[in-house]
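Translate sequence into structure tokens.
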Amino acid sequence: MPDTTAPPAPSRRRRVRRGLAAASLLAAGALALSACGGDASAGGSDGKGQAGADAAAAKDASEAKISVTSKNGATDASINDTGVKVSGGKLTDVKLVQADNGAAVKGAISADGSSWKPSAQLERGTKYKLVANAKDGKGRAATENATFTTVSSKNSFIGSYTPDGGKTVGVGMPVSFNFDKSISNKKDVQAHITVTSSSGQKVVGHWFGARRLDFRPEEYWKAGSKVTLKIDLDGVKGGQGITGVQSKTVTFTVGRSQVSTVDMDTQTMTVVRDGKTVKSIPISGGSAKNPTYNGRMVISEKFTQTRMDGSTVGFGGEYDIKDVPHAMRLSSSGTFIHGNYWGSPSIFGKSGTSHGCVGLQDNRGGGGDTPGKWFFDNSLVGDVVVVKNSPDSTVKPDNGLNGWNMAWSEWQAGSAA
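Result follows.
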């Protein structure tokens, strides 16, 4: 019997096919949505869908909460304060690298697992990437990522200071800062540098211009005292567009008291240690044409041997001695107390022959038992050398570490605190 069912009209077949195609597209769309986060009404035998799954995952999330002190995306991060802390768990691994070359920064997780710090100060103007991992008490993991750039050299300032921590210095040694940029906000900068002594002496800062800040007590430091320098400049505004980056505490020791007095009338130096005269040494000071400065001068550097070239201190080609023994700097303008092997033995204790330095009899190469070697071996950076009865003027307080030549009232007037 012939089939009497008529085939669907062409237009109906097209509509059916388009309907099937549309249904296929909708199904594909539903799958695509589910793959990327889900449709709140889709899937799940419990009827809650993806929203329920998300809520369940959040409820089961690690309780460890990681915080990074340098904010993600920061462009002025501290070079000192970068660190990681965790609550509700313990850190398991922290990696900090320079973004441009992948160089790793060493650091350590604390014994209790609650924090991490780099082992050294970070570089200025450098981009870093940090990844920190932790686990809570149930072993559930947590991760935090941060990318930041430390404050640039252009937008920060730093102070080179002396003396450094751990040193033993003479009683005349001031704490001296030299900043790499001019400071206009002197009050705040000075307020964030504190110098204290175990002797209880009052210590005051004095500004020499916009880049140098020295600290000292009214009288020399007490022998045997401990001096603590606390630098808390990280984040302190030094002026328009410049921020401090230093955060450090150092302690140095004041040794025995030694003050040596050079008398240009007698061409002798008397060394007094802890109130007692220990030695009288013949010297040859500055000539009548080039006298030695008067005043209280502090030994700021010691060199077993050094070159002295007159052209570097305004004396042209008058001298260039490449092996001066036992040299100790008394001023930044070139005044030294040093060994002299080239002068006749007859000049010491008799006449001034130098270009302003104080010379002590010595041997070439610095060997042997000589006055120059003895004084060098028995002197500390920070010891005081006083020059008197010279026809020259008194050395300027900022010419070397020689602020002792300023009256206490004037010194205090130069404080911004």
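Note: The CA atoms of residues 114 and 207 lie 42 Å apart.
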